[in-house]
């Protein structure tokens, strides 16, 4: 068997398991550890949504759906997106039901990328995109937004296009952002859209946290450039349905037709049971995220204030459930070393900023998707650590 180990796809050898997951596993064995590591709601799936899943099992909805998913689920998502964001997608031809947002990302990227293509990534950014880009034999081009409060500007796009030209196939947006919690105003979204219009590139817009926008409304870039935008969305964050593995792709009919081919061969179809639950979530639970959002906002304010007191520089987040803080001077500046030291000495696990790209080095990410009681204890431990290291 050993002689076969060098016969794997060479691109697989260029990717690694997510540093977020590796770090989380590394600290999980430490007794009494508080983990603010993973981006998973601490809320449970709403009861009426769980009931829909149970009903689906009892009614024997345990067989395949069509490749694109139940038409009822696509219709529900179409109406949800129209009501929430004022954009209409045809359920018959412009929406795919996927196995979570992660599979949606894979299907979209593998459908558009070829060897030698380049993809623009505003950094720091969620680390789930680069490995798929690499598997497609394409190359990520990082645009450092750390000097601009983590907001991508039209000038950054223009500069990259000037340097790489037709090699650029797509740009990925993720907002509200993981890891920063920063999102875009309508003016900022429109400015990016106007800039993208000048170039023959796709926009992959990962809007999985769209329902967790705190002040103001979420503005999808597809409002301005629907013909080239591929929206990634789902119910993991809005309805605390991470384990149901249910996501959506929304895109122009011509794009959806091609993405569907890749989607089919990756998964055949999403879980029928999960789709039945999704219909309930999108229709009867259209505003289920509101209660969670109120709690998240309280937690954000608390963690932001506590970390600011300790000297962390933070771009105040307006969405998702993350705080991305710059490690104060005088402390360990290597983010991995800082987080390992904190975990070992004070039993608090947070994610090193380097997990989100080089622009994240020197920062740490805290997920405040945890109870206020847990967060209060976490801030006590962080305060004790910082005071002890002065």
UniProtKB/TrEMBL annotation:
This is Aminotransferase. Belongs to the class-I pyridoxal-phosphate-dependent aminotransferase family. Gene3D superfamilies: Aspartate Aminotransferase, domain 1, Type I PLP-dependent aspartate aminotransferase-like (Major domain). The keyword Transferase applies. Residues 31-382 form the Aminotransferase class I/classII large domain. It comes from Niallia nealsonii. It is an enzyme of class 2 (transferase). Keywords: Aminotransferase, Pyridoxal phosphate, Transferase. Its cofactor is pyridoxal 5'-phosphate. GO terms for biological process: amino acid metabolic process. Its EC number is 2.6.1.-. Pfam families: Aminotran_1_2 (PF00155). GO terms for molecular function: pyridoxal phosphate binding; transaminase activity.
């Amino acid at each position: 068997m050993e002689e076969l180990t060098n016969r794997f796809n060479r691109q697989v050898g260029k990717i690694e398991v997510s540093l977020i997951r590796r770090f989380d596993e590394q600290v999980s064995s430490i007794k009494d550890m508080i983990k603010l590591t993973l981006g998973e709601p601490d809320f449970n799936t709403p009861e009426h949504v769980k009931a829909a899943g149970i009903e689906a099992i009892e009614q024997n909805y345990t067989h395949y759906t069509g490749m694109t998913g139940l038409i009822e689920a696509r219709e529900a998502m179409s109406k949800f997106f129209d009501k929430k964001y004022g954009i209409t997608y045809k359920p018959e031809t412009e929406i795919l039901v996927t196995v979570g947002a992660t599979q949606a990302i894979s299907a979209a990227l593998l459908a558009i990328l070829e060897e030698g293509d380049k993809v623009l990534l505003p950094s720091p950014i969620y680390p789930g995109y680069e490995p798929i880009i690499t598997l497609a034999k394409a190359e990520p081009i990082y645009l450092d937004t750390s000097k601009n409060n983590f907001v991508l500007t039209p000038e950054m796009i223009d500069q990259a296009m000037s340097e790489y030209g037709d090699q650029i196939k797509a740009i990925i947006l993720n907002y509200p952002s993981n890891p920063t919690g920063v999102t875009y105003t309508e003016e900022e979204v429109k400015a990016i859209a106007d800039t993208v219009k000048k170039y023959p590139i796709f926009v992959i817009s990962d809007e999985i946290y769209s329902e967790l926008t705190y002040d103001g409304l979420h503005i999808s870039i597809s409002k301005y450039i629907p013909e080239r935008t591929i929206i990634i969305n789902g119910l993991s964050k809005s309805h605390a349905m991470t384990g149901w593995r249910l996501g959506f792709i929304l895109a122009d009919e011509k794009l959806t037709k091609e993405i569907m081919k890749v989607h089919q061969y990756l998964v055949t179809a999403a879980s029928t049971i999960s789709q039945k639950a999704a219909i309930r979530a999108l229709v009867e639970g259209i505003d289920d995220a509101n209660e969670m959002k109120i709690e998240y906002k309280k937690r954000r304010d608390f963690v932001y204030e506590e970390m600011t007191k300790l000297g962390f520089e933070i771009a105040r987040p307006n969405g998702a459930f993350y705080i991305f803080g710059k490690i104060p001077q005088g402390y360990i500046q290597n983010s991995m070393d800082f987080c390992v030291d904190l975990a070992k000495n004070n039993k608090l696990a947070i994610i090193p900023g380097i997990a989100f790209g080089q622009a994240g080095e020197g920062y740490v990410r805290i997920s405040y998707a945890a109870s206020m009681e847990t967060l209060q204890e976490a801030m006590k431990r962080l305060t004790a650590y910082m005071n002890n290291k002065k």
